[in-house]
Amino acid sequence: MEDLKLRIAGVIDESIVDGPGIRFVIFTQGCPHHCPGCHNPQTHDFASGQLVPISKLLSDVQADPLISGVTLSGGEPFCQPEPLAELVRILKQGGKNIMAYSGYTWEQLLDMDNPAVFSLLKQCDVLVDGPFVEAQRDLSLQFRGSRNQRLIDVQKSLAAGEVITIS
């Protein structure tokens, strides 16, 4: 495995609020969206954070037998699709569930016509899409911050050719 590097703001070793089950959360560094009221504004600067080999992240995930999945948050994960697609490919082989947050919508991601973005997207199980909209903030939503964001079943959506949400 070529040891690609990922620019991250940080990780959470075990989380129960960033997706189903016990999850390892990777906060990518760099975000073009700058949503007002963003929960992680420190992740916006593309030059900040730290470069970490994906092999390090992989070994951290594999070292914890309680981890059922990995959540890609940010920042904007789809701004670093190459290293994340490789990391996710290996994690999926190990049976991990993959969830990603993106300020881009499902439709915008598909319209990018970027093979690395599509490679990352098609390996995800769940996508929370769309920017955080402060006026639509809703703390009662599961795994989302605002009502415009969708909880998408990626595999069912790809198979159907349309967005299939998880209720």
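That was protein one. Protein two is written in the same sequence-then-structure order:
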Amino acid sequence: MKLVTGNDLASGDVVWWTGGDWSRHVAEAVDVGGHGEAIAAQEEAARRVNTPYVIDATATPNGPRPAHIKDRIRANGPSVRPDFALAAVDPAAGSWTI
């Protein structure tokens, strides 16, 4: 499974391609298959997202789970302050405590 992620130009938030728009929630991301690079280029050229790129992920009952720890951290929000994080959709992604 392949996902496209990047950062929203207005807010800087991490966003995920949903097939027609961007979402802050990785659970709403869709598998882009072999079209990821084209989608990333098109969306960056349209100035809807900053530095989009394609990542590997696995499908879970709770939605896609990024394969790399960096992208799992991006999906869950900041790791330094749990109160800033998005609500956990993927319990296997872990949580942080201070």
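The mean pLDDT is 86. Keep this in mind for the problem set.
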